[in-house]
Design a protein that fits this description.
This protein is mainly alpha-helical and 130 residues long. The chain has one domain (8-87, 105-128). 69% of the residues lie in helices and 0% in strands. The protein has 6 helices and no strands. The protein has helices at 12-26, 28-47, 51-67, 70-85, 106-109, 111-128. The protein is globular. The two termini are 34 Å apart.
Length: 130
C-alpha cells in the first residue's frame, strides 16, 4: 500500500473482520449490532452521496450475508424494527409527569429525519434479504 491514500469506501472489509472477532468474544447480538446496526447503516448513508461507497455496497452486503445466516439477519432486523422503528407506545404518564412536554421526543422535532432513517432501514432490509 505504501503511499496510496486510504480508501474509506473499502473500510467494510476491516469492519467485517472485526465483526467476526466481536462474535467470537461477545456473541452474535453484539456482532450484528456492530456490523448491521452501526456500520451498514453508516455505509448506506455514505453511499447515498458518494459513488465509491455505492459501488462497494453490494460487496459489503454479500460479505454480511456470508458471515451471518439468513435467519440470524432476519431475527436481528425484526428486533431492530420492533424496538427502534415501531416501538410500542409509552405507557400512560403518571399524574406527576404531566409537567413533561410531549414535544420532548426527538422524532417529533424532526419527523423528516425519522422518515429518512425508516427509509434507510427499509432499504437495508431489502438488500440483506434478497
Amino acid at each position: 500500500m505504501g503511499d496510496s491514500p486510504i480508501q474509506f469506501h473499502k473500510i467494510w472489509i476491516d469492519q467485517c473482520a472485526a465483526a467476526e472477532g466481536i462474535r467470537e468474544r461477545f456473541g452474535l447480538d453484539d456482532a450484528l449490532r456492530y456490523l448491521i446496526g452501526e456500520k451498514l447503516f453508516s455505509f448506506v448513508q455514505a453511499s447515498e452521496k458518494d459513488t465509491d461507497f455505492a459501488t462497494e455496497l453490494p460487496s459489503f452486503v454479500a460479505e454480511i450475508r456470508r458471515l451471518f445466516s439468513g435467519a440470524e439477519i432476519r431475527a436481528f432486523l425484526d428486533h431492530l424494527e420492533r424496538t427502534k422503528f415501531f416501538a410500542p407506545p409509552e405507557p400512560e404518564p403518571d399524574f406527576d409527569d404531566l409537567d413533561d412536554d410531549p414535544q420532548d421526543e426527538p422524532w417529533l422535532e424532526n419527523p423528516v429525519l425519522g422518515a429518512t432513517e425508516l427509509l434507510r432501514f427499509s432499504r437495508i432490509q431489502q438488500l440483506l434479504q434478497e
